[in-house]
From TrEMBL:
GO terms for cellular component: extracellular space. The keyword Disulfide bond applies. Residues 139-321 form the Fibrinogen C-terminal domain. It holds the Pfam family Fibrinogen_C. Residues 1-19 form the signal peptide. SMART domains: FBG. The lineage of its organism: Eukaryota, Metazoa, Ecdysozoa, Arthropoda, Crustacea. InterPro entries: Fibrinogen-like_C, Fibrinogen_a/b/g_C_1, Fibrinogen_a/b/g_C_dom, Fibrinogen_C-term_domain, Fibrinogen_CS. This is Fibrinogen C-terminal domain-containing protein. Keywords: Disulfide bond, Signal.
Amino acid sequence: MGGTWGPLVVLSLLVVAHTYEETKLEDVVGEYDIMMFKNLLLNTTQRLLQAISRVETTAAKDESLAELKETMRGISESLAVANQQAIAVRESVNNGADATKTELRRFQDQILSKLSDVKLFMELKTKHMEDQVAKLGRISVNRLAGDCQDLYEMGFNASGVYYLQKFGRQVLCDMETGQGGWLVIQRRAKVVEQVDFNRDWHEYKAGFGDLEAEFWAGNDFLHVLTNQKSYELKIDMVDFEKGSYWASYSTFRVGSESSGYALDVGNYSGNSTDAFTYHHGRPFTTYDRDNDLYNDGNCATYFSGGWWYDRCYDAHLNGVFPVTPDRQNASFITWWAHENGMKVPLVLNSVALRVKPRLH
């Protein structure tokens, strides 16, 4: 039964009441009893619908759980009043004059039938609102969620985009890799419509892109996120011909803007090469904010894309994708690996950076 069913019940009651109002009763006392009950029942039904409206409004606005529960209690009390009124009519019928008993019983049967419909409707609505109460209970807790691991521990185990009320922003959560709870802070893929990663300082500060495709979470967010707990970092990469590689760092933290969003990273493990520790301690550089150690220019200008450059990089995961894979030219999106004693660049088709709280 949908949301319009309740008003239909009220209309049915109005029709019954109106039809009966035109019936000429011989007994004035019986007519008075019926009219009094009609008014009481209609008023009660109106209060029920108003209560439903308040519940739905409260749920839509994500108001407090206590307020929603209070409204639900009001609905239950209104139902109790309606039941008491039905009992009152039954007593009126039993005590009424013989001339009006038949008519009173007929009207009572109609009213009780409609009241039963209202009760069934309210039971369905109550079940729906109980679900809303549970949902709001989770939302009230979600206001404390600071990352995807918090959400995972609350029972949210589906990967996708979530809203972290603590930070007032959407994030992409990977609830399937490893033991779940990963927050994706960067994602790249060689797709038809590429996101431009050659952005200025302000854009890297705020973040950009599409959480469903390619994006950078934002340096301000990385700072507040990674300074609320101790985080680990996992980097997954795919080389165009060598397949999948990964690198994990048990330490990952980003400094404030006043530090240039300085990178704190260390304690590598993985099946690639430790190419990121080289950038430890370095502030972030964009084409309009040169914080690198390259004396002859700006690394972000030469290699396109903001990053924690040194002179210039061993890893550059915000670079452009080459039109044609070229292992001899490492000026694109790159992770330097060591093979057979030689330093060889991975030519990447995709990469993703994920963080989650360190468990130990």
